[in-house]
Structures are given as C-alpha cells and as structure tokens.
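Late entry, written up from scratch paper. The run itself happened at the end of the previous shift, but nothing got recorded in the book at the time, so transcribing now.
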Amino acid sequence: MNDRIAHSAVPDPSTFAARVETLRSQMAAERIDAVLIPSADPHLSEYLPARWQGRQWLSGFTGSVGTLVVTKDFAGVWVDSRYWTQAEAQLAGTGILLMKMMGGQQTAPHVEWLAENVPAGGVVAVDGAVLGVAAARALADALTARGIALRTDVDVLESVWPERPGLPEAPVYEHAAPHASVGRAEKLAHIRETMRAKGAQWHFVSTLDDLAWLFNLRGADVSYNPVFVAHALVGLDDATLFVAESKVPDALKAALARDNVRVAPYADAMQALASLPHGSTLLIDPRRITHGLLEKVPSR
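Output as recorded:
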C-alpha cells in the first residue's frame, strides 16, 4: 500500500530518536556533516509515494510539507504556520526540534541555517534525485559562499531505512475516449511541433500529472491521485515510457507500441539521458526536473 506509513501504528518517540542516531552513524562513516531530507520525490510531486516519505519516517512528523536537517548534534524540521501545532505534538520526545518558518522570508530558512552552522570545509548531503534544479542551485550558491561542499550523489535513506518501501506496484491503465477527448498520438504530435520550433530533438517529462495527461494513462501510485510513477523521453519519431514493466499489461504495451511508445524499466531513465546522441538538443522545464536527472545529461 502506498499509504502504509501514514496509516500504520505511530511508533514511540524514542523510535525516531534511534533512527536519527542510526543516520548520524552513517553520516560519520561517509564524512558528512549535515544531511538534508526534503519532502520530495524524483518527480517533484506534492503527494509522495511511501518510498520517498523519508522525512516522515525519520522524524515522525506526518505533515505533507516540511524539511528535515540532521547534523551530529542537531536535528530540526522546518515547517510553516499551518503545521506548527501538529509538528510540536509529533516531534515531542524525539529530540528533533520544531523550526518555525515565518512568512515573507526571501530564502529558504534551512538553507540559511546550514550556511551559518556547518563549518567551512564541511559537507552537506542531499539526494539530488529528489531536489529541484532551482533549489539545488540556491543551496549550492549559499554553501559555496561559505566554503561548504554539497554532495548530491548519495541517498542516505538507502543505508538507514531497512524496510524502505519499494516502487509502487499498482497497474497502469488506459484513459480512453470518450473520457480522453484528445488521443495520445495527437498529443505527442503537438509536443513534437513545439520541439521542432525550439530546435530540440528530445523532450524529457518527469512530473506525474503531465505523464498521465500526455500518454492518456492512469494509475494509483499516490493516494487520492490517479497517477503512476514514471519518466518519459520523447523523440521526434518515437517515445520511451520508463515505468516498472510489471505495471503495464501486454495489451496496453501493444496499444502504446501502435503510437510508437516503447515501455522500458523505470531505472533506465537516467542512463537514457546519459546516452543521448552527441550534438542533440534536449528540451526540459527546469521547474519540473530534478538536479540529479539534469546532471545525467551530457555537457555539449
């Protein structure tokens, strides 16, 4: 179930304190001074599949938005005023502090805190696969100005979360006429017109609502949202949908193939970006792609 964390029994506060200590041990082994755990997934979704609810698993705070920072002697969750009462109650006894975000702040307060509290020469780590491009640039700029290194190549949750949920397994299904008023082939044709107008041979799509719309597909990977976890690489003649292949029935694969859409394993998306032909142009929306994915695009 993709809501297994939210609806399971609430652990004792000491459980979260122990999880933070396990994280600190991993940080020491990796020579990391601070870890940043945002409320995000590789698709920059508002509502997260269970696999990427790491901030909740580590802290016990179940609000939909919040940012956890852990150092060797500090742990805090930044939340806005909507969540202050909830966070205060859920963080009680965990050793994790409630960090109140005030309205009108121009920069993310956890970024300012890291720049001011991590010593020069220190290392801040965050999983680049779940960090938006703009957020990554702002964080790197603030840390670099203080002589602090930023690591985006490590997902510490993999090492400290022994029962971390896997990718969601709900099947993908067709959203067909008359509910879909425009066919998949026509939508792809419109995308390719824009690609040609901008001189691009490829377009990468990662946001789940956009994928559901573009391919006329639906799923159940996120509670209360008819979307599925995937990426897509659209070329001028064909497209590849990167999704767990077991989620796509054979009949649906055949229907996609008729529109020149190939199904490939979800994990192959990064390698596909890294293997783009030399000299080609990739069209992306920097607001809708993560830093980790963009890093895979070869420099030209």
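The chain has two domains: 4-160, 173-295.
(Scratch paper discarded after transcription.)
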